[in-house]
Amino acid sequence: MPFIVEKSGAITIIGVTGHLIVANRQELKHVVLERLRTGDREFLIDFAETGYIDSSGLGVLVSLSKKVREQGGELRLAALNEDLRTLFQLTKLDTLFTIVDSREEGLRDS
Amino acid sequence: MDPELILHLPSDVLRIEDAVEKVVARCHRYIELERRASRVRMNLRVALSEALSNAMLYGNGADRSKDVRVELSITARAIITRVTDEGPGFDYEDVPDPTTPESLLKPDGRGIFLMRKLLDEVTFNERGNSVTLLLRRDRVRRE
Questions:
Q1: Which of A35, A68, A73, A90 lies most in the core, judged by the most C-beta atoms within 10 Å?
Q2: N- to C-terminal Cα distance for chain A?
Q3: Which band of pLDDT confidence, cut at 50, 70 and 90, is reported for residue A40?
């Protein structure tokens, strides 16, 4: 399982280990939507242990962010290294998401 | 020039990760000589992953019986990867910009854009079923 789910107060933290790519994006979608269905609203996706993200991975984050916002919540991103951050800058998705430097910062600023 | 590596894959997205790692592993010795090795590894991985998923899902229509061929060549100046599917090809000129405000919220349409941004050259054959990804080498020291 490349996604490790933890809870800190009202925040659901999902750690992405390995890659977020076309082969596993549906798993992440399933995890977030199931949590959303059971009442979770604040999500922090932690990329500290992530190798790379492809366009399908970026796409699933866009789609999940929209669904979470529609339910009055927020999906934020944490701990993108310089190379991963470049992907968000190139695609201008850095303008769509709140991106924090670390999981700790994401929990502190919530 | 003979390719350094040739892979034949079924059109199954679960095979992409392993194929990408095989190509990157074969380039490892060369990538470590680059000025920004981590950026090169990332760019090659993401671009190749995009090319493979396009070939499998759109080119071959996710038909597992259809083959995707990957050829890797490494020259003194570049790392060149070619990905070819069995599909009819598509119009690679007709790819909308995914960074416009109206496209930003769409979940798809970033694959070819990312390939072009992350690599030095991305070229398609006339039929549109074969893409060649070229990453220029920017060596910090001699091999």
A1: A68
A2: 27
A3: very high
Contact assignment for B42 to A55 by CB distance below 8 Å? no
A96 touches chain B (CB under 8 A): yes
Q: Give dist(CA B105, CA B4) in Å, integer.
A: 40
Mean pLDDT on A36-50: 97
* β-sheet bridge partners, residue A18: A50
Reading phi first (left if > 0) and then psi (alpha if -120 to 50, else beta), residue B46 is in alpha
Interface of B with A (CB under 8 A): 13-14, 16-17, 38-39, 42, 45-46, 49-50, 53, 57, 98-99, 104-111, 113-114, 117-118
**Rounded Cα distance, A71 and A67, in Å:** 7
Taking only the tens place, the pLDDT of each residue in A50-63 is 999 999 999 999 99
ipTM score of complex: 0.89
For A58, nearest residue in chain B (alpha carbons): B107
The whole-angstrom separation of Cα B44 and Cα B37 is 11
Q: Give the mean pLDDT of B26-41.
A: 81
pLDDT value for A110: 66
